[in-house]
Design goal:
Length: 168
């Protein structure tokens, strides 16, 4: 009987501790969008994206030009078969280069975005941690779209507190 009483006391104490655990939530995407740094990051990414778009477009024009030239001679019986094969190989090489360039552009843009966002994300994490600790939250859940949170009570939303911490 004494063991049962000890176990029951321990279980009740565990539930009492768990009942006191505060869980908050925040939509960090909304927070980041409201920060002044987000605009400058978007502008820098836009410039970078435009530069890569111009490079990819130039390669695309070159590839289309070579393809059009190949199509002109492909049906011409007076053009040597070897010349046709060389032109076809040029088109295939340009197409491969074009695809590799597109992939590289995507990778470089992703890298640049991560590079530019890293200081901002660190600032947000630090502010969220500071607000959570100051207000006694044991956990803070992300509520941005796709985060998996189905419902969140607005009274536990830390967004206003974190905005105040960041002077937004």
């Amino acid at each position: 009987m004494k063991k049962v009483l000890v176990i029951l006391t321990m279980v009740c104490a565990t539930f009492a501790v768990q009942a006191q655990t505060k869980v908050g939530h925040i939509n960090s995407s909304l927070l980041i969008e409201s920060m002044p740094e987000a605009d400058s990051i978007q502008k820098k990414l836009g410039v970078e994206q435009e530069q890569w778009k111009n490079i990819v477009d130039d390669k695309d024009r070159e590839m289309r030009s070579k393809y059009a030239a190949f199509m002109e001679i492909s049906e011409d019986p007076s053009v040597n078969k070897t010349v046709k094969e060389i032109k076809m190989q040029e088109v295939e090489n340009l197409q491969k280069q074009f695809q590799e360039l597109q992939q590289r552009a995507n990778v470089e843009l992703q890298r640049k975005q991560e590079e530019l966002l890293q200081p901002l994300l660190e600032k947000v994490r630090t502010a969220i941690s500071k607000v959570a600790k100051a207000n006694g939250y044991a956990y803070v859940m992300e509520t941005s779209e796709g985060s998996g949170v189905i419902y969140s009570d607005p009274k536990f939303d830390l967004l206003p507190l974190v905005k105040a911490e960041l002077s937004l």
